[in-house]
């Protein structure tokens, strides 16, 4: 590794560390409700919300809830009882694992690209892409499965394949990646077929990896027994529930869902070419391991109706090398692409993408991933005492708004959260809870005016977004935005 590359990694680690501290909360509800909520239940916390149906059906691996449980218990022994510090340590562990995987993967992909400038761009986006900075500090199933698989994949190519001891460890890593998120099994499926038919791997080494994989599954079964308090094969339950019973098709998105969102949600304008580059890469490198890994994974997720962009997050670390290898190959095949006009076009796309990426990185490392968790950290625990009741604006009575704030892992004061359909109900709650302090939470605009209209005295005590964002009130956007706001009801 050159001196410049060492500085790149040092700078990247500092960015990741800042992101781990400031990017509090979860990206998707599953990241909380199927990991931290399970851990809160096992820690014996008072549960206001109902534990997700996945617990009853036993379809989620207990690996990450167990890690969260152990971290919480371990830090408690040292007098650290804040769930926000626990969550930071979980993000810190995620950072370390992802950084080790990226470091190892870096040494593999740099050998795949010969043109130094193209290789530099590939490494830059691998280290500093905003979506990877965001993903690599998440204590999420997608993040952990991606990091562990990338580590196993890179470890295979990092050293000489004749070193037998590493095969068992690779199998362990692949197994824990599978336990983190079962869909990563499609990556493992493609990788195993590549090892057998393209990698010409010895059967004996292959079985060593399988034994490591089986051991990790056995550990997973023991952890599932701890979580569900009965013998449970969560990986089979997941397959049966989502594939055999077909619940995965409850939410149907069009076939072009991933094509569109991969183009517009990552780092435009360069990601406008993501679908095209993937197809070209598969065509140019049909025997490459990345091709064999990504085809079954992407094809599977395109086939089923239930689509979410996070399902394809594991593909993202491979994109920089796919771009780099594709561009390098096309430049060799078509000499006219070396003309100045194409170089100018390429540089323009890169520079615009870099500029947009820098802005997105700054937002990633300064804004919370979950505004609801930020409210708990910066407002509820500091300004709402235990003898309080939190009322939430829930006009349709669905409980969805209330549910977003029912984060028992962070509710250390056990503040009851009650939904109300409008501000008129606040007066009734004041009579119902005479000895309690009342607070009102809403994220719909215009609620403060409704409090005044109903003769309710209140004081705004906090908002979900940081003050520095709210102060940049260009064209008075804050008056029209839906932002979580908390008022103290003055009796």
What does this structure look like?
By secondary structure, the chain is mostly helical. It folds into two domains: 3-366, no CATH class; 371-489. It is 61% helix and 5% strand. It has 22 helices and five strands. A five-stranded mixed sheet has the order 2-1-3-5-4, with helices on both faces. Helix 19 links the parallel strand 1 and strand 2. Helix 6 runs antiparallel to helix 16 (319-333) and helix 14 (274-284) crosses helix 16. The chain is globular and about 75 Å long. The mean pLDDT is 88.
Q: Which stretches are poorly predicted, pLDDT < 50 over at least 5 residues?
A: none
The radius of gyration computed from the alpha-carbon positions, rounded to a whole number of angstroms, is 25 Å
Helices, by number, come to 22
Strand order of the biggest β-sheet: 2-1-3-5-4
| CA distance, first residue to last residue | 65 Å
Number of domains: 2
The proportion of strand residues reads: 5-15%
Q: H/E order of the elements?
A: HHHHHHHHHHHHHHHHHHEHEHEHEHE
Main β-sheet, in a few words? 5 strands, mixed
Kindly state the number of beta strands: 5
Query: What's the overall geometry?
Result: globular
Write down the overall mean pLDDT: 88
Helix-strand category: mainly alpha
- In percent, how helical is the residue content? 55-70%
